[in-house]
Design a protein that fits this description.
With 1218 residues, this protein is an all-alpha fold. It contains 60 helices and 4 strands. The strands form 2 sheets. A two-stranded antiparallel ribbon has the order 1-2. Strands 3-4 form a two-stranded antiparallel ribbon. The chain is globular, with a radius of gyration of 38 Å. The two termini are 42 Å apart.
Length: 1218
């Protein structure tokens, strides 16, 4: 930009015509947004001209000047920024009264937009002048504007003016006694902003001052409001003051029946006190429990505070009172415009609503306050009524989350009253209340479906009337349909059938409405109602609970008439298309014998060929194929199979997966009657998808191949030429596992059964065996081939005897330790699980000879083979294993064999009682072994035995623990319990779990680590067993372990290395905490965990830091814990910032080192990315919360991330991933 253009714009600012001045200001604003540099003289001229326009007579020019001012701050030097701030501050303090608000907006813009490097100096300069403006008494408007600006300064730069904090607090406290209400209000807001950045000492001093002021202030309400605002700002830091604050609030609330306290001033004080309680309960979750009884009692009393109503709710009967009582209560006092008591009731309800979100209090909440709160749903003031309904809804959500049986039982007892009151509201006229009621009923039907179903005769007619009401809004009808859908999905069909018979015509009429969301939801309800009219269980219709034949035919005809136009339409919303197709599929699959389905089938065939509708059509065809009615698809089947085969070529993975599922259903239902060319074509298109690149699609493809072979054995040649080569290649893949492996084995068995020429047992065995001749095949690939060989031999029966003899011959040590011996051991081991191999001569000795091999792989395979073959012949092999254990060699391998025996019996649920007394003595003997590997095998054996014989084995473990001096035994007991947790021994273990959990506090670090792993397994596999111990035992130990360090220096000769023996314990503790958050977050104590979490975030080990990041992210995403964590977010900001700064410096240093290793740099990038992901997640959680107050510390950290180009790019990429 040339100097002449600047001169031109500046000249325009001096024109008499306001339009010229506006355009000049706008042009200058646009120019400043470009990459332009101003010299010192030009900076001064531009700043002076812009500041002058703040006095302009045109409001438009003033607004544009303020906008220009914000842009200018990034262009000028620091001295010029300070000069602008001084000028604006002077104008606020001494300028024209009518323009003071414009000056204030300008200064606020400067505070918000000034660069960080100028921020500290600016804050220091402004605070002193703003405090002077607040203290002056000549002009109250100046005071108000200064308070506003000081609040903005504190929110952005509060930590930069620490030296002025004490002066700020004292000045603001003085303003609380100002005669101006506006000044009091703004001072309170400013105090809450200041409280966020105060040190603990100053914060305590502030709270003490406010508490003292309650006994001397003339306006108690202001002080109480200030305490409430401060508590909302500082969160958990207010916890130490609860013993004084809570009694104070209770004192100011007084007795609701005291008529002397029914003035407007006392009403405001009571409302403020209750709002303070709401804040304290929400912000101090750890410290508040001891005060909850008193708070709940007071809130319950004021929830009913209504001096203008003379009724008595306590006399209501258990059904919620009579209709007349309800009507009187609803109408009473509507004309009393000056009645503000509803504000007190609403504040009290909000307190109870927050308490209702605490899982630890929900059972007591229902027991003591449930009836009162439910009765208050009849509240005459709609604003309060909505909050009462939300309170009840919160309590139901909490009960659903906690699954507390006592709470659910108490809720079920309240259900008649709830439904009665809800019904009366649904019959009234207030749409907002009806919407809230439907929301509550939707939550209730998820938790207590049978209870809601018992009231269907009361509720469904009301739903019908609301759907039929011409004046009802679309959103209300939508809410009614959501409730209906919930009932149809959750409740038993027989409980709803009669009511749905009457309601169906109304729902079908809604399908003809205009709003797309309403139409789509109505179609979902229609589809769900089909399952009620003709329920199906385990592939069979429940005729006893179905509608009669005539009714079914009429219902099918009516639904067909309603759905068909939506199915035929092409120019409608996508959601309607999908819902219509889904409803069509369900209608045909359940009621296809009641009407002519040809038109619908033809339309489905068309929809299948459309890219937009093919996915829902695939699901519809799957439903039809799985129908018990054996629906004939002759008219569309050939074309459908051809299209589905083409879909397998598409790039979309979800499409291929859905296509496979549909093909499986179609081949299963109609495969026998399909043309062989269609089936061969399917096999040809399936073959490219058989690979280890996508094991799930491979599983589906192999399963489909087995179904095709079962439907038509004549397809075997095609399967052998297309599928088999890929299957044989897959068999030797080290990645093959799970369902894909099982499907592959089923394919091999199918081909053996068919025994097609060239593809019989011998051919398949030879081809598969040849796969392991390649020395490049990995160990797991050899194991997978062995699985396949076993499947072939077992399926071949007598035909596999030659192959078995060949495998036995390869066990001879003289043959060497090659792949052949390894394959033979693994294959025979697999076979031994399914058949008795005791007839094979000298098999046991041949397997045992593998223990003397120099190959570790051969030793391991021999141990596996010995244990697995013992399962099929326990009388021969088990005594041999036990006798060998008495020798002084091969203990680890023999125990590994014994583990195979026990684990296979446990997994197959076979009786092991007759062998228990034989295996226990050697296990107890070796649980003291100095070799950790041996003890670990013993632990696995003991753990598996606990799952089969819990009572006896738990007694044995208790006896082993009796020797408190034997560390190795305690280690083995703790490890065995870890392996026992995946069984069903909860009842026996629960009686002794407290004793076992004491191992978590063991002095030996190895025992403690094993106990921590045991605790993690218990939380994951047996949450009900762990639940009673979470709060008082497990969490405190985990949190204390997170801070445990045991460092020692190891002398390695040339250098010394520091080793932290506490690191494995800290990792195990944090992993267990992550498991608790996944399994039962409702029992987690966030307040107890935040300090240890901060320590984990600042740990010296990167693995701990990354794990701590994952846990923090989990906390942010859990609704039940998010608010409590955000209250304490300040605690974790410093370690996060320190980590980001340190990692950036390390990366910069590595970048300068030419020989820097790539792995180290990648590790640092992963650590930095993990930290930034945590910041991004915290920011998202804060943005989504209802609480407007935010930690300045976190804001500062977020600005650090966003102002760094690399970190900002990283954060944006993370947001895109999410």
């Amino acid at each position: 930009m040339s100097r002449s253009n600047i001169e031109k714009n500046l000249a325009s600012l001096e024109q008499r015509d306001k339009d010229e001045r506006y355009m000049g200001t706008s042009d200058l604003c646009n120019e400043l947004q470009k990459d332009v540099k101003l010299d010192t003289a030009m900076e001064a001229r531009v700043c002076s001209a812009i500041l002058k326009r703040l006095d302009d007579t045109s409001n438009d020019v003033q607004s544009k000047a303020i906008q220009c001012l914000g842009i200018l701050l990034g262009k000028v030097q620091r001295a010029q920024v300070f000069e602008i701030s001084d000028k604006l501050c002077t104008l606020i303090l001494e300028g024209k009264d009518e323009l003071r608000d414009i000056y204030s907006i300008g200064l606020k813009t400067l505070i918000m937009d000034v660069p960080d490097d100028s921020g500290r100096g600016l804050a220091v300069r402004l605070v002193k002048r703003l405090l002077d403006g607040i203290k002056q008494t000549s002009n109250s408007d100046v005071t108000l504007e200064c308070l506003d600006c000081l609040t903005d300064v504190l929110r952005r730069f509060g930590f930069e003016v620490v030296s002025d904090h004490e002066t700020i607090v004292s000045t603001l406290l003085e303003q609380l006694s100002s005669p101006k209400k506006a000044a009091q209000k703004k001072a309170i807001t400013c105090l809450s902003a200041a409280a966020l950045v105060l040190s603990d000492t100053l914060l305590n001093k502030l709270v003490d001052s406010l508490m003292t002021a309650t006994s001397s202030s003339t306006d108690i309400r202001v002080v109480v409001t200030a305490i409430g605002q401060v508590s909302r700002s500082v969160g958990h830091r207010m916890g130490r003051h609860l013993p004084t604050v809570v009694p104070l609030f209770l004192k100011f609330l007084g007795n609701p029946d005291d008529e002397s306290l029914q003035s407007e001033a006392h009403a405001e004080l009571r409302e403020t006190s209750l709002q303070g309680f709401e804040s304290l309960v929400q912000r101090c979750p750890r410290e508040i429990p001891s005060h909850l009884v008193a708070i709940t009692q007071s809130a319950s009393a004021f929830m009913k505070y209504d001096p203008n109503y003379c009724g008595d709710d306590d006399d209501d009967d258990e059904d919620g009172g009579s209709d007349e009582d309800f009507d009187d209560y609803d109408d009473e006092g509507d004309d009393e415009d000056d009645d503000t008591s509803w504000k007190i009731r609403r504040a009290a309800v909000k307190v109870l609503s927050v308490i209702a979100t605490r899982p630890d209090q929900i059972a007591l909440f229902y027991k003591e306050r449930g009836t009162e709160i439910v009765n208050r749903m009849k509240e005459r003031e709609e604003n309060v009524r909505l909050d009462v309904i939300e309170c009840v809804a919160n309590s139901v959500r909490t009960a659903q989350l906690s699954q507390d049986p006592e709470a659910i039982a108490a809720l079920s007892a309240l259900l008649p009253s709830i439904v009665t009151i809800c019904g009366k509201h649904l019959a009234a006229k207030e749409d907002k209340t009806k919407t809230a009621v439907f929301g509550l009923l939707c939550i209730l039907v998820e938790l207590v479906p049978d209870g809601i179903a018992s009231f269907a005769s009361k509720l469904f007619p009301l739903v019908s009337s609301n759907l039929s009401l011409k004046t009802a809004s679309h959103s209300l009808k939508l809410d009614a349909l959501y409730f209906l859908q919930g009932c149809l999905k959750q409740c038993k069909p027989q409980d709803l059938r009669n009511e749905m018979n009457l309601l169906l015509p109304v729902v079908l009429s809604v399908v003809g409405e205009d709003w797309y969301k309403l139409i789509a939801q109505a179609l979902r309800v229609v589809s769900a109602s089909i399952d009620v009219f003709r329920p199906c269980t385990d592939g069979m219709f429940d005729s006893e609970n179905s509608s009669d034949a005539a009714t079914l035919q009429k219902q099918a005809s009516d639904m067909f008439t309603a759905i068909l136009p939506r199915l035929e339409a092409n120019d409608i919303d996508q959601e309607i298309k999908e819902c219509a197709i889904s409803a069509t599929g369900n209608l045909i699959s359940r009621l296809g014998d009641q009407f002519d389905i040809s038109a619908m089938l033809s339309l489905l065939s068309e929809k299948l060929r459309n890219d937009v509708t093919r996915m829902p059509t695939l699901k519809a065809l799957t439903m039809i194929a799985q129908s018990p009615l054996s629906i004939s698809l002759d008219s569309i089947l050939p074309g459908t199979m051809t299209v589905l085969s083409e879909f397998l070529r598409q790039a979309s993975r979800p499409l291929k997966q859905s296509t496979f599922e549909t093909l499986l259903a179609l081949v299963d239902a109609y495969g026998a009657q399909m043309d062989i060319n269609l089936l061969n074509n399917v096999l040809k298109e399936t073959s490219p998808l058989i690979s280890d690149a996508d094991l799930h699609l491979t599983h589906l493809g192999l399963k489909l191949t087995c179904q095709v072979l079962g439907a038509n054995a004549s397809t075997a040649p095609t399967a052998a030429t297309t599928i088999l080569p890929a299957a044989l290649h897959l068999a030797s893949s080290p990645l093959l596992q799970g369902r894909a492996l099982q499907s592959l084995l089923e394919l091999f068995k199918s081909l053996v059964r068919i025994n097609a020429p060239g593809y019989g047992f011998e051919d398949l065995y030879r081809e598969l065996r040849a796969r392991v001749d390649d020395s490049a095949v990995q160990k797991q690939g050899i194991a997978n081939v062995s699985h396949g060989l076993c499947a072939l031999i077992c399926e071949a029966g007598a035909g596999g005897e030659t192959a078995t003899a060949s495998l036995v011959s390869q066990l001879d040590p003289a043959q060497g330790d090659g792949t052949a011996r390894l394959v033979a051991l693994l294959t025979l081991g697999e076979m031994g699980q399914y058949k008795d191999l005791s007839s094979i001569p000298n098999l046991q000795n041949l397997i045992l000879s593998g223990f003397d091999s120099i190959s570790e792989e051969t030793k391991t395979a021999s141990a596996f083979a010995l244990g697995s073959t013992a399962v099929g012949s326990m009388s021969l092999f088990l005594p041999s294993i036990l006798s060998s254990l008495q020798q002084d060699r091969n203990h680890y391998l023999l125990l590994s064999s014994l583990k195979e025996v026990i684990v296979l019996h446990a997994s197959n649920k076979q009786d092991f009682s007759s062998y228990l007394n034989q295996v226990l003595p050697p296990l107890k003997e070796h649980c003291r072994s100095p070799e950790e590997g041996v003890r670990n095998m013993v632990a696995e054996c003991l753990g598996a035995l606990v799952t089969m014989h819990a009572e006896m084995m738990v007694a044995e473990l208790m006896a082993l623990m009796a020797n408190v001096e034997d560390v190795l035994v305690r280690w083995t007991v703790a490890s065995s319990l870890k392996y026992a947790m995946n069984g069903s021994s909860q009842e026996v273990l629960s009686a002794h779990m407290a004793h076992f959990l004491s191992l978590m506090s063991d002095e030996d670090l190895g025992v403690k680590q094993s106990a921590l792993h045991m605790c993690n397994a218990m939380v994951h596999h047996q949450p009900a067993l762990a639940a009673p111990f979470i709060a008082n035992t497990i969490l405190p130990i985990l949190c204390s372990t997170l801070t445990f360090k045991s460092e020692r220096v190891v002398d390695l000769g040339p250098f010394k290395q520091k080793v932290d023996d506490g690191l494995p314990l800290r990792k195990a503790s944090l992993t267990t905490i992550a498991t608790i958050l996944d399994i039962m977050p409702e029992r987690f104590d966030v307040g107890l965990f935040m300090e240890p979490l901060a320590g984990a975030l600042g740990d010296s080990e990167a693995d701990m830091q990354i794990l701590a990041h994952h846990v923090t992210i989990k906390l942010c995403k859990l609704d039940v814990l998010k608010s409590a964590m955000l209250c304490c977010v300040d605690v974790i900001v410093d370690p996060l910032k320190a980590l980001i700064d340190k990692t950036q410096k390390s990366l910069a240093k590595k970048a300068k080192e030419e020989s820097a290793g790539g792995t180290e740099v990648e590790r640092l990038y992963d650590l930095l990315r993990s930290a930034v992901r945590t910041v991004v997640t915290l920011d998202a959680a804060i943005r989504n919360t209802d609480d407007s107050s935010t930690s300045p510390k976190f804001k500062a950290l977020l600005e650090v991330v966003l102002q760094n180009e690399k970190l900002r790019a990283m954060a944006e990429a993370i947001k895109q991933e999410n």
